[in-house]
Design a protein that fits this description.
Layout lengths: L6 H4 L3 H4 L7 H8 L12 H11 L3 H12 L19 H7 L7 H19 L2 H10 L1 H7 L6 H17 L1
Helix pairs in contact: 4-5, 4-7, 5-10, 7-8, 8-9, 8-10
């Protein structure tokens, strides 16, 4: 039974699954059985470029967020319920009018527009990323990057990924 297996340790992609966001156990099971391959960033490049043109957000920043949030997996679901490539929470999906968070184009376009909103509100990439992860209210409340381990790690990881893509 899948509940009894340490499917993450068994996966040939275990090193990729150790990212901050969790990959659906069903995807891992499919990967183990050779029916699913974790996608590469290149697969989403056209969607990223189109979303960049629509939102005005640097395509490399969008790509960095996708890498850290979902490790390029359009079916990723976080333990907190965030979904898709840019790991949109259900409340954010509703706010942005996303009907299918697992549709890569819809997810990346909405996530990019949400990131644009945070960049306009906070003025720096660092604070925009913090707001993207922890919510704008938390950035306002703390007057900067909130003291949450997850958020601080997210900001560091995205900035590092962004600098390697730049």
């Amino acid at each position: 039974l899948i509940q009894d297996m340490d499917i993450y340790a068994l996966s040939p992609h275990a090193h990729l699954l150790a990212q901050p966001r969790m990959v659906s156990p069903l995807v891992v099971q499919e990967a183990i059985q050779g029916r699913y391959q974790l996608p590469s960033q290149a697969q989403w490049q056209d969607i990223i470029e189109d979303s960049s043109k629509i939102s005005g957000v640097d395509a490399k920043l969008i790509a960095a967020v996708i890498k850290v949030e979902s490790n390029n997996n359009p079916r990723a679901i976080s333990p907190k319920g965030a979904q898709g490539l840019m790991q949109l929470m259900p409340s954010t999906q509703t706010y942005l009018g996303v009907l299918d968070p697992f549709d890569p184009k819809a997810n990346v376009q909405a996530g990019s527009l949400y990131l644009k909103e945070q960049l306009a509100s906070f003025g720096t990439v660092e604070l925009a990323l913090a707001a993207y992860n922890a919510g704008p209210g938390n950035v306002h409340k703390h007057g900067g990057v909130p003291p949450f381990v997850e958020t601080q790690s997210f900001v560091r990881q995205v900035l590092a990924a962004y600098s390697t893509l730049h």
